[in-house]
């Protein structure tokens, strides 16, 4: 059963066309020279209760604007949005009781106060009954050792401890939906894994619907079965993370083990001058000493590439692999696969 229902959602901003220099700044004061920026351009999605979905895309793709509309901060220009049967921007006061929001970059907790005081304030704000509060605080203690941090002012927490506290705090009032924005940003691998474990546990236990925005592909691979990729305000992929590859299925990695020394730059130049195509093969040495050549099969036949390579070197071993999902998503972020 879907809890988030978005249809043909659009959001445009009217932005002043700025002019350069001091004279330009003065002109801007009186200017009516505006342009329209389509931040979100016809996005539709339906998310079921309890799903954890990765919401990803390059910088400026429209993720924050979509989330702001989902949380009721912004009103759409057109289209419809319903979250847990609320129209967020219309029924904001009632609606916020049902959601939790975590921004990796800034804390929702009270900076100067001991951790426990923040949780007590949240208890009052969300009118959480004693039983729910005590049960959740017990659970958070089991998961992240919250008791040992109770008396520490938030500003003295390490970034990882602060993030763990922020995440469990978002779950304190048992919201139905949580928006997580970059929950592992700037953290080392061990604390990232701990945070992922806590998110997964709370999602499973509480059947909380989670929309996760992250630039860390491992977060997606570990936490999300489904991802929605947006670019330039529109959805370019919505489905099983394992199927992202099929979007760009024309790509393969040809892995080569050479039987003699070679010069990577020389090899690259030869390949690039021999195959004239729009998207040149990507050639790199991997850590295990093999050469990886990523080929767009729409432009170069695997057999042509192999035949050409055999004219250059004796090869010891050859493997053909699919492009890893991680690489594809990273390239989408960097705008490289369009
Ligand atoms: N208040 C605003 N006024 C004008 N333009 C805006 C405003 N908010 C966002 N935009 C523009 O809308 C587009 C989408 O921005 P948005 O912040 O939603 O992208 P994003 O995917 O969240 O990017 P990032 O990963 O960098 O946070 C961008 O071109 C941005 O400059």
The CATH class name of the largest domain reads Alpha Beta
| Secondary structure: number of strands | 13
Q: What ions, cofactors and ligands are bound?
A: adenosine-5'-triphosphate
> Cα distance, first to last residue?
34 Å
Level-2 CATH architecture of the largest domain: 3-Layer(aba) Sandwich
* Average predicted confidence as pLDDT: 87
CATH superfamily of the largest domain: P-loop containing nucleotide triphosphate hydrolases
User: What's the number of structural domains?
Assistant: 2
Cα-atom Rg, whole angstroms?
A: 25 Å
The helix/strand order is EHEEHEHEHHHEHEHEEHEHEEHEH
Strand order of the largest sheet: 5-6-7-3-8-9
| Poorly predicted regions | none
- Describe the global form: globular
- CATH domain fold name of the largest domain: Rossmann fold
Structural class based on helices, strands and sheet pairing = alpha/beta
């Amino acid at each position: 059963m879907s809890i988030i229902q978005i249809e043909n959602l659009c959001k445009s901003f009217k932005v002043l066309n700025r002019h350069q220099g001091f004279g330009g700044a003065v002109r801007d004061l009186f200017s009516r020279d505006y342009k329209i920026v389509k931040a979100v351009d016809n996005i539709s999605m339906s998310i079921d209760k309890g799903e954890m979905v990765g919401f990803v895309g390059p910088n400026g793709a429209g993720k924050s604007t979509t989330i702001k509309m989902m949380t009721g901060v912004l009103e759409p220009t057109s289209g419809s949005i319903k979250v847990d049967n609320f129209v967020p921007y219309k029924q904001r006061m009632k609606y916020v009781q049902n959601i939790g929001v975590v921004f990796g970059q800034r804390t929702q907790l009270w900076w100067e106060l001991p951790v426990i005081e923040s949780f007590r304030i949240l208890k009052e704000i969300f009118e959480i009954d004693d039983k729910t509060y005590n049960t959740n605080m017990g659970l958070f203690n089991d998961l992240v050792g919250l008791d040992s941090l109770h008396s520490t002012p938030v500003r003295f927490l390490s970034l990882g401890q602060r993030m763990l506290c922020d995440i469990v705090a978002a779950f304190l009032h048992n919201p139905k939906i949580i928006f997580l924005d970059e929950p592992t940003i700037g953290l080392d691998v061990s604390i990232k894994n701990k945070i992922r474990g806590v998110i997964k546990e709370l999602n499973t236990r509480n059947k909380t619907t989670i929309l996760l925005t992250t630039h860390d592909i491992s977060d997606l691979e570990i936490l999300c079965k489904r991802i929605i990729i947006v670019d330039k305000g529109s959805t370019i992929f919505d489905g099983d993370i394992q199927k992202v590859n099929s979007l760009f299925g024309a790509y393969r990695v040809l892995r080569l083990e050479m039987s003699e020394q070679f010069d990577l730059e020389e090899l690259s130049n030869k390949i690039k001058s021999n195959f004239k195509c729009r998207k040149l093969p990507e050639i790199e040495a991997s850590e295990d000493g093999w050469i990886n050549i990523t080929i767009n099969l729409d432009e170069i036949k695997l057999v042509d590439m192999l035949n050409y390579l055999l004219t250059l070197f004796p090869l010891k071993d050859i493997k053909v692999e699919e492009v890893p999902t991680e690489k594809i998503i990273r390239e989408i972020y960097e705008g490289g696969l369009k």
